[in-house]
Amino acid sequence: QVQLVESGGGLVQTGDSLRLSCVVSRRTASTYAMGWFRQTPGKEREFVAAISRSGGNTHYADSVKGRFTISRDNAKTTVYLQMNSLKPEDTAVYYCAARYAFHDDIIREYNYWGQGTQVTVSS
Question: What are the residues whose beta carbons fall under 8 Å from the beta carbon of 101, sequence distance 6 or more?
Fold first, then answer.
């Protein structure tokens, strides 16, 4: 079983930055592809960003491209989401996700999820 623990959410103003962290409970975190998703009340969970096992491949939703950066430190078993130029529409609960990956590819479906961290951007 893999446990994911997110942190770093909070209340910020438009244009501010936040960095979310997701700690993976396995020392073999480098064998897991990772992703960030977000959800607002009454809406489906939506994809934000994904990163391959090594960190060499990344993918972003169009809505965050150029503002958000996903990265990972496998030695610390931690994945990050740097969020810059935040907008009110970025307000959501952000979830970290993981899935074992045989190759260094972007994964689109995940089977491990964290509990989420709230990000609120005021206008």
Answer: 31, 32, 33, 52, 53, 107
What pairs with residue 111 in β-bridges?
Answer: none
Distance CA(97)–CA(20), nearest Å, equals 13
d(CA 68, CA 118): 16
Task: Give Cα separations from 85 to 17, 45, 119 (angstroms).
Answer: 6, 22, 13
Q: Write down the mean pLDDT value for the chain.
A: 96
Q: How far is CA 112 from the centre of its chain?
A: 13
The span from the CA of 19 to the CA of 28, in Å, is 23
Cα 48 to Cα 27, 34, 59, 75, distances in angstroms? 25, 11, 8, 24
Which of 1-10, 25-34, 88-97 shows the lowest per-residue confidence on average (mean pLDDT)?
A: 25-34
Amino acid present at 27 = R
- pLDDT 10s digits, 18-30: 999 999 997 788 8
